[in-house]
Amino acid sequence: MSENSILVVDDHSITRQLSIKILKQLGVESILEATNGQEALDLLSDQTVGLILLDLSMPVMDGAEMLKHLKADDRLENIPVVMITAAAEQNKVDEALELGADLCILKPVAKQALSDIIMKYL
Predict the structure, then answer these.
(1) What are the tens digits of pLDDT across the range 23-73?
(2) Beta carbons of 83 and 54 less than 8 angstroms apart
(3) Are 79 and 107 in contact (CB under 8 A)?
(4) DSSP per-residue letters across 14-25
(5) Residue extents of the structural domains in the chain
(6) Edge-to-edge, what's the strand order for the sheet holding 81-86?
(7) 7: three-class secondary structure by DSSP
(8) Residue 107: which of 83, 85, 81, 92 has the closest Cα?
(9) 6-117 is classed CATH 3.40.50.2300
(10) Other C-beta atoms within 10 Å of 107: how many?
């Protein structure tokens, strides 16, 4: 995988598939997906990506914990991370930004808004 790849990390398959559909419509051909932070870190152990779309609340390892691991790894620390969180978790947005997320957006995310955000990083 390359820096043109995008990693979508979300435990809800419908949300992951929606993001992947939007990415494909934008012409992104290389898309990785993971259901939690640990699975995502395992994928990144031998490859890199150009952008991570990261859900905040997930089992096994949540987005905040994954972000801590990313920012502590010299090889991964500069990958842009767009954190996606439910509106009920608004108080966690500041925490995610402090941990190093480039941007935090609230679910549900409008298709055009997500497209615009992704295009900013492509």
Answers:
(1) 899 888 899 999 999 999 999 998 889 999 999 888 899 888 999 999 999
(2) yes
(3) no
(4) HHHHHHHHHHHH
(5) 6-117
(6) 31-34, 6-9, 51-55, 81-86, 103-107
(7) strand
(8) 85
(9) yes
(10) 16
